[in-house]
Amino acid sequence: MAARDLEFSCSCGGFAGHITEEARKSGLRLLCHCADCRAAELFHGQADPTEGVDLFQLAPDGIVITKGAEHLRLLRLSPKGLHRWYTGCCGTPFANTLAKPQLAFAGMRSDLFADKSALGKIKAHANIPQPGKPPRSKGMFAMVFGIFSRMLAARLSGRWRQTPFFDIETGAPVAKAEIPSKEARAQLYR
User: Fold this and answer.
1) Number of CB atoms found within 10 A of residue 141's CB
2) Is residue 178 within a helix (H) or strand (E), and if so which, with residue range?
3) In degrees rounded to 5, what are phi and psi of residue 160?
4) Region 132-154: what's the mean pLDDT?
5) CA-to-CA distance for 29 and 143, rounded, in angstroms?
6) pLDDT tens digit sequence for 41-72
7) In this structure, are strands 177-178 and 72-75 parallel, antiparallel, or unpaired?
């Protein structure tokens, strides 16, 4: 680990690692207010994130798991839903990814870091609810530009193959997806 890498760990400490300095510098911190992020938090027994879920978006090659990789588990809120990774040791939400490793994207929970201010200021808000109106977002240009530029750089350089989330030979996730029943999902979205 380099001196300027930033360490993370789950609630119980059985799963840990760091993000590289380059990933920290090129990433973007945001709050997501969408119903799916809220439902995932509730699924894991976390407090209801009324202020939004604090995420740090980066390319997966910047994530280095140093302890407890065998604890990675996968949740999908629907059969085609976002991959929502968590730890099997204590149920700590870890990161969100897309369904294919070639789409090099990860949204890590900022709460995994002892000092989340080291990730920078919150630069975007996604899916802010508005009574009687569609959700609105702030800072979307920076967020979308960052996602696509990191994906393109990872794709062109081949760094997309460096991911803790997928078996690159098969393209399969490293854990089998757990998909809650429709009834269980309905409880999460109340």
Assistant:
1) 10
2) strand 177-178
3) -60, -25
4) 94
5) 9
6) 999 988 888 899 999 999 999 999 999 999 99
7) parallel
